[in-house]
Oxidoreductase (Lithospermum erythrorhizon), 362 residues
Amino acid sequence: MEAQLEDSVQNHERAREIKEFDESKAGVKGLVDAGMLKIPQFFVTQSNDDEMSASSYIHIPVVDLIDIKDTTRRKNIVEEIGQACEIWGFFQVVNHGIPQEIMDEMIQGVDRFHNLPNKEKMEVYSRDVSKKVRFYSNIDLYQAKSANWRDSLACQMAPHPPNLDELPKTCKEIIVEYSDHIKKLGEILFELLAEALGLKSNHLIDMDCAKGHVLVGHYYPTCPEPDRTIGITKHTDPDFFTILLQDHIGGLQIYHQNAWVDINPLRGALVVNLGDLFQLISNDKFKSAEHRVLVNRAEARLSVACFFTTHYQSFNKLYGPIKELTSEDSPPLYTETTIEDYISYYNFRGLDAGPALSYLRL
């Protein structure tokens, strides 16, 4: 009885602290700026020492997209991407067509936003998923077992982009410009992925897989106790795929063959990782890999993730295993779902609740 009462008191205190943190609208950076030396208990992550170790000697594939219009070269690129998606679910691309100065400015734009005075950032702080532009900390703040040491600026850029005046003044031009580049690259990758699955190059685009994308600028502040929390807990992405722009700090890791592998920043490269929806439509031919982000004491980390998904914009289109990839010997492994329903379920569970795709498995 006493133990139950103690748990009740602790749960009440935790709920109060989370609510207070959320209502401050200052995010994790607000805690750091206030000089906090000990992280709040609701950020503390329970993990064992083995989970914290990682290998820097294994590297995910790097695919060079140069001369992609050359027939022989394109065939080699498709084979490389297919192998990467079967084995890793992750790869990096270089010579992808996005100028380095555009990528640098995108990182700088996200940095400018997150370093604005709290009063200015508060104007776009929201947990309303219907808003096209919003600043928040931890999309699953009220569901997760432990909060992550991260703030985010999310912008739904397609298929129905926000008005220019809805975007933050400090980075609106570069968000639009970078988003346009990412849309073109995304369509190229959907063609290559379709070919890697043995489909016609326009198959996935005709399925509207490339119809939407959400740009999220993450900020991982310096952490006074980096061994007690994490930037993003182990998870898979609830989209078709994600194109990630990293800064030079590092901290991204992929879980591969029962070990964590560092994805060290490579200047000029973009990281591509498949999401749950791609694993679903490929009927497990390609994998959605678990990954996480560590934080550090010395320097803040920035990244820009572009999630190819229509997100909460409802279109009622059902996605399931592609018929051309199924047969009597390889029957469908998943039931169909809409993107909106899947993401709602994914966020309701929280990032640290384990693989969400399993609930659609037949």
The mean pLDDT is 93. The first strand starts at residue 54 and ends at 55.
